[in-house]
Amino acid sequence: MILEYRHIIYLIANIFRVFSINLFLETIFSKNNLRCSQELKRTIFILYYISNSFIYLHYRIPIITVFSNLCLFFFLTLPYYSTMCKRIFVVFCIFLLGILCETIVSRSSILILGHIPSIEVITYTISNFLFYIVVILTKSILGREERIYQKGRWAVLIMIPSISAFTDILALYGGYEQWITVSVIFCLFLINIAFFYLYQIVVSNYEVEIQNQSLMLQNKAYQQQLDMIHATEDSLKRARHDFKNHLIALEELSKSHERTDLQEYFQKLGREYQLSEDYICTGNTILDGLMNHKLKIMTATGAVIDTKMQIPENLDINSFDLVVVIGNLLDNAIESLSKQKKGSFQIEISYRQGTLLINAKNTYEGEIIRKGETLISTKKNATEAHGIGLSNVRRVIEKYDGEMMIDTEDNLFNVHIIVYI
């Protein structure tokens, strides 16, 4: 069989379609969910390309094309761990998306250009770009790694294939020599593949950076817990050291029958060892320990404190994440209250039907300027720590698809947090 001009265009376009299908499968099944090696997966996709191209070029019967596509799509799902129902669902998604893209392009081309000889070739190429755009949008909605980027990123990703599709139409409809048209189309497909490959490298590098920052947050959480443990141990050591002497003093006072002196000694002893007083007692060990430790520091600033807690003992949230969120909120409040003569702090934490609600507010002095999602304080030495703390909180909340809203009106720094657990 001698390859014609339209056949060459189809073979080039089919390479790009295989690339797009691979991206779609990685989005649905996760690229880390492979049940075989990457080499075997590549072999399967190469076999798919050869089989699909052979069937299209030799058997142009619709029933055979539909049946072979469904079988080959199912073949492409085999490298991933999944249930049979999900595999069938994904197969039909790919098939229907492909049919939809081809229908949209072919009907639009006929309406705009009419029944020209190159309408079939235009449908091949442009429908593949449209399918690629749909895959990018799917990754933007479903892909976990995509959430680390700013909103509107998909518009930039779609720009490249959209411009490429427009350029393809100009090349196919411009009456250029066939070898020029083939070269342009091939280069455009190659540019799109290279662009997305470089984009994935950037995503991977950014994910490594996020993981490193997560390790830093975990180390900070460890340090905060160790600080609480050390503070408790120091209190116990001091109490043990003086315990024997206090027992001797109490024994002597009891022998002297001086009840007044004995009562005064008990009162003084109670005031001296008031270290065990708890502000929070929810039954959640980590949360209680962290908040009691931080609120004692906050009390030393002279601030008025109001707390409301309605949470179960066991929350389905990583303990490190909980320490990072609550710890940073309290640290920021302590920093702000330490610069005030008469400040106030309120915090309310409640749990309702899988949703953790946190509302923390404290007074502040000075001016806070918003720069996007970043808050900049006019106070010296407050900008960096405050900004980093809130960015760490936001990063943890995004892991749980939660939300954080900040209000700074009337010199009241108010943070609303919703976490879905």
From TrEMBL:
CDD domains: HATPase_AgrC-ComD-like (cd16935). The keyword Transmembrane applies. The chain crosses the membrane at residues 7-25, 61-81, 88-116, 122-142, 154-173, 179-199. Residues 318-418 form the Sensor histidine kinase NatK-like C-terminal domain. GO terms for molecular function: identical protein binding. Keywords: Membrane, Transmembrane, Transmembrane helix. SUPFAM superfamilies: ATPase domain of HSP90 chaperone/DNA topoisomerase II/histidine kinase. Gene3D superfamilies: Histidine kinase-like ATPase, C-terminal domain. This is GHKL domain-containing protein.
